[in-house]
# Entry
Amino acid sequence: MNSSLLTAPPLSLYIHIPWCVEKCPYCDFNSHALKSQIPEADYVDTLVADLDADIARFDLSERPLHSIFIGGGTPSLFSADAIKSLLEQVLSRFKKNSSDGINSSKNKIEITLEANPGTVEADKFIAFAKAGVTRLSIGVQSFESDKLLKLGRIHNVNQAKVAANLAHESGVKSFNLDLMHGLPNQSLENALDDLKTAISLQPDHLSWYQLTIEPNTAFHSKPPKLPQDEVLWSIQDQGFKILSDAGYQQYEISAFRLVKDNEVDDKQCQHNLNYWNFGDYLGIGCGAHGKITDTKKGIIQRTVKVKHPKGYLDPNREPLDHLNTVTDDELPFEYMMNRLRLFSSFTLAEYQQRTGLAAETVLPILRQAQSKKMMDCSNSSSIEGKWRVTQLGHRYLNDLLELFL
Ligand SMILES: C[S@@+](CC[C@H](N)C(=O)[O-])C[C@H]1O[C@@H](n2cnc3c(N)ncnc32)[C@H](O)[C@@H]1O
Ligand code: SF4
# Structure
């Protein structure tokens, strides 16, 4: 790596809340079914201590924060008071962009909280907004009762619709709905109806994921009957068209933002955009991952925190489980694995700044991908040439990424 090429990217913060009411049979996230009361106060204290250790370890006191994402698990199980206390403590630890304070209306950063429709009562969204949350991400998954049942969800169709309407009125700046397709016994018509119902609720952002069967899940040990490949392709093709006709612009493999006439507000998820642009992020909480660029040392490091809540909350143990430096060999694939998910173009100058590696470390592979019509470029002999994944490249993204291995 040539450290003179490296620049410090925006810094985000991911906060993991590991509890759920029930464990869903398809889910491989670090989430645990609640057996007793959530140790809210202890967890908030441990998160703050975890953050302090990261700030000292990476000398981050001078870097402003770009975004916060509170994910899980089910963060909406936490009280708004606990979220407020957590956010106040977190924000007070970062450099302010101006004398107005980091979350004054002038400097407001995006703060997302994931919510499950079955865990929110009428006032909770309003209280989360008052606590500082600016964006809600609601896990709806489907609008069909039998699909929700099969997915082990604790909410019903009506609760999902109510949650979306509450989000509109809560005072947050924007909200996202998570929807899945390719569900057990789902027909093309079922999947498109789900999408149309989601659109009728007018979320600012839609995340539309194809269900994947992950190892170590109940669905993996006892696989459900999934739609045939031809049905899956049709769901995608027709679904993309429905979304686009309704004003939802795809900017990432599974992410769509609502674009309204004359609207200047960007509805892309700023936090996830920072991941996909190979930005930096701290990860605090059970099993959370982080990535930090140290421009002085010319290295990029990754952190992993203790995974199980019992171990993470153990006062005799430090939250950090693992710290390693990403090697030069790993960086091209890691950069592309994130960046090629996006529909916008990138330049090799950006690649150099984010990885500290010379453009030549990927240029031959990009040209190979160009010859396979999986990528195109405005000017492949210039470092400022704009590289973009083609429609074919996005359809066969795994094959495209394998070229960089
Ligand atoms: C971090 S998860 C959980 C958020 C929240 N706890 C919930 O389930 O509503 C974020 C989203 O990933 C998606 N997801 C989770 N497991 C998946 C899988 N196996 N295949 C596809 N999408 C999945 C779901 O849409 C989920 O809402
Ligand atoms: S509610 Fe979300 S995080 Fe929890 S088990 Fe279900 S999918 Fe996983």
Summary: The chain has a mean pLDDT of 94. Residues 280 and 292 are 5 Å apart (CA to CA). The chain has two domains: 11-274, 328-405. The two ends are 18 Å apart (CA to CA).
